[in-house]
Amino acid sequence: MKLLMECKRLLKEYRRCFKCCSGTHVARECPAELKCNECESNQHCTVMHPDTAVSPAPSPLTESDVEQQNSSPPEVTSRCTKVCGEGRPPRSCAKICLVQVFPQGQRERSIKMYAILDDQSNRSLARSEFFKLFDIQGDHTPYLMRTCAGTTEMTGRKAVGFQIEALNGEVCLDLPPLIECNEVTSNRSEIPSPEIAHSHAHLRSMAPHIPKIDLKAQILILLGRDLIQVHKVRDQIKGPHNAPFAQRLDLGWVIVGEVYIDSTYKSTVSVLKTNVLQNGRPSFLMPCQNHISVRERVGYGGEHRQSTSAQLTTYPASGVTAKDKLGRDVFAKTEDDNKPALSFEDETFLEIMEAEFKRDEQNSWIAPLPFRTPRPRLPNNRAQALSRLHSLQRTLNKNPTNQNPADLATRSVPASRLTDTMWFTGPEFLHKPHQPETPRSFELVDPEEDVDVRPQPTTLATSLRESELTSEQFQRFSTWESLLRAVSFLIHQIRSHRTNSTVTCKGWHQCNQPRTPEELEAAKIVIIKAAQRDAYPEECVALLENRAIPKSSTILNLDPFVCDGLLRIGGRLRHASVNPEVKNPIILPKQSHVTRLLVSHRHAKVKHQGRQFTEGAIRSVGLWIVAGKRLIGSVLHRCGEL
């Protein structure tokens, strides 16, 4: 049997279904109902099982078959298989728990499913059936899947806003974003069960805590390190060496290791005679002695250019085969190896010139026109030529050439006759006396009664637009303190005009009292929000509408999200138990005047020390500047205190 990766490569190359191997659809749309004999999964056939390759069952051998096999060539394969129980293959249990998953706040929509707990995965995954059960729609985004087989670029949807609950209902957790991936294994033989626990003496005490196998529940999600709580071990039963062990997690008990049922191992040694077919595939059946081998003819350099008809070349059995000839000549060096080759059009041109380039009776060389075949027809330009002729005639009638001294330079006039021409004197009409024009009078017409005068109505449209605070209005401020003080003063004036405000000041006034911490914090949010809205308008609108941000965004790799109206950095620290300002810092654009004021302010706070101290002070207050090192270096370069 071919390896699993080779089978997948062939199916992908010929665009066939990974489930039933059909060429009319993909695996996601496969209507076939299959079942794997190894893991009883309905997502792939037995041949595509990721762990083993199933060989056909051997047929009973007769005496003639035994004699024929004994006389066959010694190309046989023997193998020893260790089985568990009465003909059952070894089983290995993994960290798989039966859980309930439902959208946040919608417990009535909960669905039972099995979850794989894999601490080697940095992200949590979900199969396509999970998205189908909860009717999740969305765009497919690309991501890289790194496994032992290499790195593969894949696409999938994201499921956000779900909760997972243990089967006993004691633990309920918020799930991180689940990425669609059908590479999640669905091997149901790795699910622990009470029967497995009863088969091991040291695990019998925890058998009542393991639920029975739910035949309706599917393995749909894989929980990685982005939900670290489910991987913490609360209790553990180790047992003897080389025996499976049990762990109590927040989602329930799991059994890990190679397990067996019926309380014993039975070692059985089987020797099977195997025949190797012509294609290299092993088989328990006797191969047919009559076979036909067909091989395509290998063409050598330039054969298709010399002849267009198919030719059949027969190589004698004792001679050199096409395959051997190719191996001998493929690395041969010639003088033309480093010269640029001619194109087909160049070769065709040279053939035409070689055949039709000749000298006529008058010793003149005649060359053909190597036009393309079929020769393209030129457009009819007669109308354009007539238009240019009429334009030239109008120009000559308006400015006769005999009155233009510049035309003498283009005529063959001898130098001795230039004095007889108008080259030195100019045209005659320049020497004639100027005749004043006779004034003409025109009768005035009332514009209101003139039918040729069209009235020009004027329409004015007035529109009201609510003005928003933009970062351009902050350009006049040179320090962060002055900008913060000005915006907080405006906020204080707005609050003093509200009827339900708790501010003691009322109406417009010149307040000399210091600004409160609440007003300063509100001013900071207003300033940063205006800077983010001007720098990332599309990202702000997309996130507020729960859409994916554009792929061309400069902050796409920061996994941004909106919290309290501000753009913040996402990532794996979102569920960490650290300061929220450190987990999800505020995003600041590097080209904003507000960002430059903040860098100068924090640089002054660290007593004008170096770039690392300034950068650390900025991050400690929960700010993240895009490409901030270059901006910090520019601010420090202009600082006069260094």
Short key terms for the protein model shown above:
642 residues, alpha+beta, Cathepsin D, subunit A, domain 1, eight-stranded mixed β-sheet, four-stranded antiparallel β-sheet, 24 strands, flat
3D architecture notes:
It is a single chain. With 642 residues, this protein is α+β, with helices and mostly antiparallel strands. It is 24% helix and 15% strand. An eight-stranded mixed β-sheet has the order 8-11-5-12-4-3-9-10. A four-stranded antiparallel β-sheet has the order 2-15-14-13, with no helix packed on it. Residues 52-87, 263-269 and 298-318 have low confidence and may be disordered. It has helices at 4-13, 63-70, 128-133, 194-198, 303-306, 322-329, 344-356, 382-398, 480-496, 517-535, 537-544, 580-583, 593-605, 611-620, 628-638, and strands at 82-84, 91-93, 96-103, 111-117, 125-126, 141-147, 150-156, 158-159, 162-166, 172-174, 178-180, 219-223, 235-237, 245-249, 252-259, 265-267, 275-276, 282-283, 358-359, 365-366, 560-563, 566-569, 586-588, 623-625. Helix 9 (480-496) crosses helix 10 (517-535) and helix 13 packs across helix 14 (611-620).
